[in-house]
């Protein structure tokens, strides 16, 4: 566990600010869902913000990212506009996907975010292929692929990792291990020693880090990304964290004791980063201000999203396909 | 014009397109040795191992990787060996390739061709013989192509490779050795346009893939009986050439759809329903469909043959359509 006064204060203040913005975005989204403004499911990443901050801020803007159904934090950290994201959650015009995707399908190709995904583990072969495409074109870009611990029990995990090794592709696999596969504890459903051991068994170096310890995660991600960009092939980063909310925002998660959640909340990456920055001499007021500014920003964004109109219903027929376009003949 | 095989016409399409556009590459199992049927023979020598890419036996990853590679500016040709194996990659094709453009609000396209050889090929049994084209016609976002002749395999595959949509391209395994006239110069066939394989005025037969040839054989026999049938080879199933079909049935007043796939929920049902809806008052007889019974395809020839639509069944069906109707 990182316990030192000698941290890069400017960088970690910026990352703490980012984590607050991610949390505030999701808290605003949960509030909007309770108010009937976000109609579809949302899967909050509250308590897991360090993974987004530590991995995505070490990527270059041109690097690519693939995420999961629990991907608001990753997307925001890669540089997507939170107002466009919030409009997407509200299903409004001007959403990142024009209101066609919602929370589980946010993508922003303009910042290299190639999509959240509604199917667990499905982003792994796509990320692998994106890296394959980059390598074919001689690019120096790399791909980061974030998935949960549940994904390691799906076939595409094995297929994608094997492929990335066989072709020495520039891809960082990140297992954001929050301990739960939907509402089941992953450990009760998983053989062997987990994501890292599985990666190593097919020749991919694996790093296991405390996913709530941002400085540790940040250093590991930066090192892995440098190795990958240098052409050494894929790396798996296993970040162990904890999902403070239920599987979805409406899951009361009664399958685990309240004390467990309370203990984890005290160890969440924001609390730990604040303690570390306080130790490094950052004043309490400064820290509190970061939280309140983020909350204000996202509350205002939710209000703007609410004030935005629906997409034109005719857009339902757009962007299906060029050949056989339903605007010419729907059936 | 020169004689060439269906297999080699497809090979030529890949060579011509890969020569024209360096962003095109092919990926699949055993491609460096020519692929399971020899469709890629010699291509790795021409284009190198990076662009004729041998892959692990990982259908889901072949398909998923192609989606990612298409998103990053390349144009992959996916080889699935047998359409039956592509079922290991249905999420990657149906939930990912077909949906990405729409779901992400039109931010990008997924230009990829998925070659999935279909059809009964002597004694290959239930997991190497299926014709599942109707499944893919049901999926918004996909284009579905099923060529029947060497010239069409050249022209349609080239058009499929140039298409910016994901295309499911279904060659028929029993046609690989079929020889036919193939244009020597640049030859493109528009996706979505049917071929009137034979003109006639008594009955319209709509078919595709290998059944085109069975229908043409049946038509020869029927012509000796004075029954001139029009045979329409759809070539592309989505989008299908509705205008060509409706124009023909409007003239003949009779429709028979023939396909090798299981008749139940086969694409023939869509055509029959469309014609019945649009041309109810022009029909001189009820529309008919011929397809396989709803049984898996067996190994032993006498059993396997029960899953085939025979020339005789086509002839019988046409005769039934033109016979004077008797009161019930």
Describe this structure in words.
- The complex is a heterodimer of chains A (331) and B (328).
- Chain A is an alpha/beta fold and 331 residues long.
- Chain A has a single domain, classed as Thiamin diphosphate (ThDP)-binding fold, Pyr/PP domains (Rossmann fold, 3-Layer(aba) Sandwich), CATH 3.40.50.970.
- Helices cover 43% and strands 9% of the residues of chain A.
- In chain A, the strands form 2 sheets. Chain A has a 5-stranded parallel β-sheet with strand order 1-2-3-7-6, with helices on both faces.
- Chain B is 35% helix and 18% strand.
- In chain B, strand 2, helix 2 and strand 3 form a beta-alpha-beta unit.
- In chain B, helix 1 runs parallel beside helix 7, helix 8 crosses helix 12 and helix 9 crosses helix 10.
- The chains are: A alpha/beta (331), B alpha/beta (328).
- At the A-B interface, helix 5 and helix 6 of A face helix 3, helix 4 and helix 5 of B.
Compile the SSE list and pairings.
The complex is a heterodimer of chains A (331) and B (328).
Chain A: H1 9-34, H2 49-56, E1 64-66, H3 72-78, H4 82-90, H5 123-136, E2 143-148, H6 155-166, E3 171-177, E4 180-181, E5 184-185, H7 195-201, E6 206-210, H8 214-229, E7 235-240, H9 258-266, H10 269-279, H11 284-306
Parallel strand pairs in A: 1-2, 2-3, 3-7, 6-7
Antiparallel strand pairs in A: 4-5
Helix pairs in contact in A: 1-2, 1-3, 1-10, 1-11, 2-3, 2-8, 4-11, 5-6
Chain B: E1 2-5, H1 6-20, E2 24-28, H2 43-47, E3 52-54, H3 59-71, E4 75-79, H4 90-97, H5 100-103, E5 113-115, H6 133-137, E6 143-145, H7 150-162, E7 167-169, E8 179-182, E9 195-198, E10 203-207, H8 211-224, E11 229-233, E12 236-238, H9 242-252, E13 255-262, H10 267-278, E14 288-292, H11 301-304, H12 311-322
Parallel strand pairs in B: 2-3, 2-4, 4-5, 5-7, 6-7, 10-11, 10-13, 13-14
Antiparallel strand pairs in B: 1-8, 6-12, 9-11
